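SAMPLE LOG
Freezer: B-3
Tube label: C17
Construct: single chain, 331 aa
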Amino acid sequence: MSRFDGAEPARVARVDRGRLTVLGACGPARVVPSAALYADDSGGPAVGDWVAVRGEVAVELLPRTSAFTRTAAGRTSAPQVVAANMDAVLVVDSLAGPLRLTRIQRYLAVAWGSGASPVVVLTKADLCDDDDAEVAAVRADAPGTHVLAVSSLTGQGVDAVAALLGPGCTGAMVGPSGVGKSSLLNALTGGAVADTREVRDDGRGRHTTTARQLHLLPGGGLLIDTPGMRELGLHDDADGLDRAFADVAEAAGQCRFRDCEHRTEPGCAVAAAIDDGVLDPDRLRSWRKLQRESERQQARADARVRATQQARAKALVRSVRTSRAGRGATR
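STRUCTURE (predicted):
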């Protein structure tokens, strides 16, 4: 921090229009982000970021150690950082209805690619007849991922989640609406810091969290609560996909041909694993679907970057021509 005279590090706890709520040595404060925070492709400050603060101004965004990043909703291909500098990503889903393994797979692909450690947290265990069986099903479908069943109502599993977020550790909860993120936050903090609502009659969730926010936990950990996501578009998540589908990726690495499409090619280790019952064909189908999506998003992102570079080059040419024309007129 020596290169910033009078600047101090602070953690972004909330982002509002034109203002940041930050946690620093003197406690929470409201500061104004400088234009420098939006100068690159980082997308500006996100909850969990560290910033350099001088007075009432955040003057620089400090490097991130991890980031849960999705493609922004809508037609844009721009990345959107949901949470930054987490040690763990809590992928939250509910046991109150049928398991949606494909949805969990999508969140895990982004979580693995974030640079943090993913944990699947299955809420509302008190509404499930056999939560052990559901946990086993998710574990089988998410190799290498810790899976917990919790009930914010009875307290089941809450201590296990709290143990993941010890002093100085930061977690981020992600998941769709109505799966119990706000209730879990209240259970972890021991108070009503987040509003909660019952799910709708059709079983779909209601939005109770309206903004991302960093909360301090009693044990010294921190937890970022995020609103439910209607869309979770992949963004440059090739590494995350390989981690989320480690079984498929490992088999694919043993195929005879490097460009094997895992269909009818000779020497395909993926097809052999399916025939031997080692690999679930549904896993292969999910992997292919998410791979195609990731490749499409990357192509769109590359096109956006090219368009931006071309626009800057044209603007530079116009600026040079205008400058030359101005010098010629004064001669």
